[in-house]
Amino acid sequence: MSSAPVLQLAGVHKTFGQTAIIRGVDLDLVAGERHALIGPNGAGKSTLFNLISGRLHATAGTIRLRGADITRATPQAINRMGLARSFQVTNLFHRMTVFENLRCGALRSRGGGYAFWRRVDGVAEANARADEVLDAIGLARRREATAGELTYAEQRALEIGVTIACGADVILLDEPTAGMSRSESAAAVALIRKVTAGKTLVMVEHDMDVVFGLADRVSVLVYGEVIATGAPDAIHANARVQEAYLGTGLAQAGAAETAHA
């Protein structure tokens, strides 16, 4: 893991009218780390993801990707610079095949968008990349199935595949294990660890087993502010974090550990 910052947020604010959602976030992410963003519902986690990926623009502050200012860049420009994201809700073309969805992701970084039928330069490379990712996510046997035919867990795996198919080296995953069973979550964690090896991963996640089993560092967002950043063990022991999570994620995880001690 390099110590060089790959993603830097400095004084980032986002307001909607008179309502402040993100209130002065400072965060440096080093290349190759797996970083989890946690916090209560309504803390602003998805809004922060939208700011980083260009779906929203910050009211104040700067966001830099490998030193380049992307604060007001479009999602397409940011994607071409090597950052890709998934969403809380599965965001697939359900009538297209698994392979076609992956090819769309591979074409995205080339400016080909989702129109997989277009004649574009590099389509052979996109096909090869789609097949490579297909094997990586374990869906080769489902190559010709439509995305709508897949199980929920398979759809989430496919979405992760589409996210990485463009070749981005900074990956944002928004609640990748939401709605999964314990065994499905474990399989998803193994998949994420595999396909993001050597990449920088930022994920929003509510499952503390996933967070503490996967992340190198954790940042806690409460009411639009980062109240703590550190190694998982340090975050778990942080009294302020425990208070912020009272009755939710971290407090419940701690209670479960105590009950099984």
Structure report:
The protein has 261 residues and is of the alpha/beta class. The chain has a domain at 1-76 and 204-261: Rossmann fold (3-Layer(aba) Sandwich), CATH 3.40.50. It has helices at residues 45-53, 75-80, 98-108, 123-136, 152-165, 182-195, 208-214, 232-237, 239-244, 249-260, and strands spanning 5-16, 19-30, 34-38, 60-65, 68-69, 83-85, 170-174, 200-204, 217-222, 225-230. Strand 4 (60-65) and strand 5 form a beta hairpin. Helix 3 crosses helix 4 (123-136) and helix 4 packs across helix 5 (152-165). Mean pLDDT is 87; it is low at 112-117 and 251-261.
**Terminal-residue CA separation:** 34 Å
CATH fold assignment of the domain at 1-76 and 204-261? Rossmann fold
Q: Any guess at the CATH architecture of the domain at 1-76 and 204-261? A: 3-Layer(aba) Sandwich
Mean pLDDT figure: 87
Structural class: alpha/beta
Task: Using the alpha-carbon principal axes, give the shape.
Answer: globular
Over all CA atoms, what is the radius of gyration? 18 Å
In short:
Helix content is 38%, strand content 24%. It has 261 residues and is of the alpha/beta class.
Could you name the key traits of this structure?
6-stranded mixed beta sheet; globular; 10 helices; about 260 residues; Rossmann fold; disordered C terminus; about 40% helix; 10 strands; alpha/beta; 4-stranded antiparallel beta sheet
